[in-house]
Design brief:
Layout: H1 2-19, H2 27-106, H3 108-118, H4 122-214, E1 241-244, E2 251-254, E3 257-260, E4 266-268, E5 273-280, E6 286-292, E7 297-306, E8 313-314, E9 319-323, E10 333-340, E11 343-345
Antiparallel strand pairs: 1-2, 3-10, 4-9, 5-6, 5-8, 6-7, 7-9, 7-10, 10-11
Length: 353
């Protein structure tokens, strides 16, 4: 029920935030919504990072508590073994003392007579009697000492068992905290995912509006003679199409191609055009977007640095960025996209090596 309520709250936030584009849309209004979206995503990223740190801390405490519980169980086992040995020792000594007392009681007269007859003097006789009594007293003291040790062990065992119960309660509490934190993380990640979808929709609408502003003849002609975006590297490490995302481990459309290159390698404009975006774009990192004269939009992502600014006119072959690994990236490469009317298409149809 708690999670359902949270998701309902999230859904209401999204509706209020910007999924409903009821008002008349302009590029300026969409840019504003996009900026708000990115700010909200940044805030959520910070929350997710904080929760993940808390989860790691709780998990470490659970592991530590589990180890302490195991140590206490080992200690209890050791105390049980010692207690069992003491019980056997006590019983053994009690049996010996009982046998000795029985013999003395049954043969007391004969024992005294033997002592008297074997004694060479009264003094020796008294000494012999004293030694018999002394042996019995020592047996009693030994049993009392063993009993005391056994009681001490039992008390220690109870203390250890109490500590074990305390640690088990702590572990249960930590596991509950961990469950709550993971639920909260999932809820925030869900909200972030929805904002990413909204971000993509906003970007597509912005690009579609940009295309309509530039092109007035009603027809969009696309050429296929574009140059290659990284002149010094011809290899592609990941093609356009659905794949398992290397970071999020989910099946997702890869909207462009990845060209691996060392940090600082220049990337160039594939055609003449105007820079419509130059800056940080969430998971894309440092990004350049170019509106070309024929209507298509190209996108250069994960750059280490940018060589052009918004509004700049660029020519085919001009350096627009230097390759890096910013944003959601596993290593230095150029993520290159071609978009038509805001929709990503296979870039290989519009570029040539």
């Amino acid at each position: 029920m708690k999670k359902a309520i949270s998701l309902i709250t999230i859904s209401s936030l999204l509706v209020g935030y910007g999924f409903a584009f009821a008002e008349e849309e302009t590029k300026e209004s969409l840019d504003k919504k996009l900026e708000q979206n990115k700010q909200e995503q940044k805030r959520l990223d910070e929350q997710i990072q904080s929760i993940r740190l808390s989860i790691r801390e709780v998990e470490a405490n659970i592991q530590n508590t589990t180890a302490q519980i195991q140590d206490l169980e080992d200690k209890i086992q050791e105390l049980n073994e010692k207690s069992d040995k003491l019980k056997l020792e006590i019983e053994k000594n009690k049996d010996l003392l009982g046998q000795r007392l029985k013999v003395i009681h049954q043969n007391q007269s004969m024992g005294y007579l033997k002592v008297i007859l074997s004694s060479e003097s009264i003094s020796q006789f008294l000494d012999n009697i004293y030694m018999v009594k002394q042996v019995v007293e020592e047996d009693k003291e030994l049993i009392e000492s063993l009993d005391k040790n056994k009681n001490d062990l039992e008390e220690n065992k109870r203390s250890v068992e109490d500590k074990k119960q305390e640690m088990e309660s702590l572990k249960l509490s930590l596991q509950e905290d961990n469950l709550i934190l993971n639920q909260k993380r999932e809820e925030i990640e869900y909200l972030k995912e929805e904002l990413e979808k909204e971000e993509e929709e906003l970007e597509n609408k912005i690009q579609e509006l940009s295309s309509k502003i530039i092109l007035t003849d009603g027809e969009i002609s696309i050429i296929s003679s574009g140059s290659w975006p990284v002149p010094s590297v011809k290899r592609i490490s990941s093609s356009y199409g659905y794949r398992i995302h290397p970071i999020f481990n989910t099946k997702k459309l890869h909207k462009g191609i990845d060209i691996p290159a060392t940090t600082g390698t220049p990337a160039v404009a594939i055609d003449d055009g105007v820079v419509i975006f130059s800056g940080v774009q969430n998971g894309y990192g440092n990004t350049v977007m170019i509106q070309h004269d024929d209507g298509k939009v190209t996108l250069y992502a994960h750059n280490n640095s940018l060589a052009v600014s918004k509004g700049d006119k660029v020519t085919k072959g001009q350096v627009v960025s230097r390759i890096g690994s910013t944003g959601n990236s596993t290593g230095p490469h150029l993520h290159f996209e071609v978009r038509i009317n805001g929709n990503a298409v296979d870039p290989m149809k519009y570029i040539s090596k």
